[in-house]
What does this fold into?
Amino acid sequence: MRIQGSHEDQWRQGHPEEAPRQGPHQAQHFRREEEVLITVSDDERVARGFRFRKSERIRTRRDISRVFDEGVRWSGKGLRLNVRPNGGAETRAVFVTVRKYGNAVARNRARRVLSECWRLAKPGIVPGMDVVVVIFPGEDRFDLRAGQLDAVLRRSSLAV
It folds into this structure.
């Protein structure tokens, strides 16, 4: 038998708290974070020349295989570049990791970090090339990977 009412459990409140809001009526602190993100993204590096568009990526297996088969290789600490002229006006790139790199999180992080390094270095790279960047295991700090990429680009004379 159950007795209902507030005297049932004296430590329990009579009315439960209201559930947190969702959607457009959510709490104000999310909007403050959005404002901060907007001011960070107003950096000059997001200018037109520093974008990494889909047209600047090698997307098909056939194109990647062609770069591996017919391209020239340059190796450096942590990565290797395979380069082949593509006959077009812009340089295209793709970032791949070796099979023994680690789990998917580590592989994706390595690709993201190197993609960002490439995006910032792209205005100083010779146009009209297809580049496959093979990433080897190592520390995935932005400054280290940027230095490795810069060294290999200078050695391969892709940097203008």
Notes: The beta strands are 72-76, 79-85, 92-97, 129-135. Confidence is low (pLDDT under 50) at residues 29-42.
